[in-house]
Specification:
The protein contains eight helices and seven strands, in the order βαααββαααβαβαββ. By secondary structure, it is of the alpha+beta class. It has a single domain, classed as 3-Layer(aba) Sandwich (Aminopeptidase). Strands 1-2-3-4-5-7-6 form a seven-stranded mixed β-sheet, with helices on both faces.
Length: 214
């Protein structure tokens, strides 16, 4: 999906477990994760099953990058045509293990959330694009520029390809960060059954002077 700069490396399958544990720390107080796993003890233990599944999905259908073998941060990028997690795609990425790991009630909340988010995604940007599934930085390394290191190479590549990028966030504190990288808010809604605001954001490709977007 991209030729990236030397400070980005592809995540490997044997890094899924430690990366999942890092992502639980990163998203521990994120509205999406607290909605799916409201109890802190369950969130700490079961959250890794969710991120392991999402990392497997990213490895199979998109690209997963980290900054170094120390896993300071991880970003998952998926082509829009593969962004919807269908039943069969889920099964190929460990959907049954995810169900067992999350438990029945949490799985139901995840499925309801994902279906709603997919509908807004299709509404906001129906044309082919790249989907920033998620980006997470270990709390021990936040504020040190790792988020930018994970995002810039792919955004530069998307600019070269003339391709838009889409993301959504349930953490309003992150909106300004994404705006810094050229994303704009297209809609904000409170999803049924939740207490947080869901924000869809689009980044149009930047056309450099002397080049054409055709």
């Amino acid at each position: 999906m991209a030729n990236t700069k030397s400070y980005l490396i592809r995540l490997t399958k044997d890094q899924i477990e430690p990366a999942s544990e890092m992502l639980v720390r990163s998203f521990f107080n994120d509205p999406k994760l607290t909605h799916i796993l409201p109890e802190k003890d369950a969130r700490k233990e079961r959250g890794r099953h969710l991120f392991a599944f999402e990392l497997r999905y990213g490895l199979r259908y998109g690209r997963v990058f980290t900054t170094s073998p120390n896993l300071e941060g991880v970003a998952v990028w998926i082509p829009s045509e593969r962004s919807a997690i269908t039943f069969w795609r889920a099964m190929l990425c460990g959907g049954m293990a995810l169900q067992r790991g999350l438990g029945k009630e949490a799985m139901a909340r995840l499925e309801a959330f994902s279906n709603q988010v997919d509908e807004y995604h299709k509404k906001h940007l129906p044309d082919p694009h790249c989907y920033l599934f998620f980006i997470g930085v270990d709390p021990r390394h936040q504020g040190q520029g790792y988020g930018g290191k994970l995002m810039r190479p792919m955004l530069e590549w998307l600019d070269e390809k003339g391709m838009a990028c889409y993301l959504n966030t349930q953490n309003e504190e992150n909106i300004g960060l994404y705006e810094h990288f050229g994303f704009r808010v297209v809609e904000q809604v409170t999803l049924p059954g939740t207490a947080f605001v869901h924000t869809g954001m689009i980044r149009d490709p930047v056309v450099k002077e002397g080049t054409s977007s055709d």
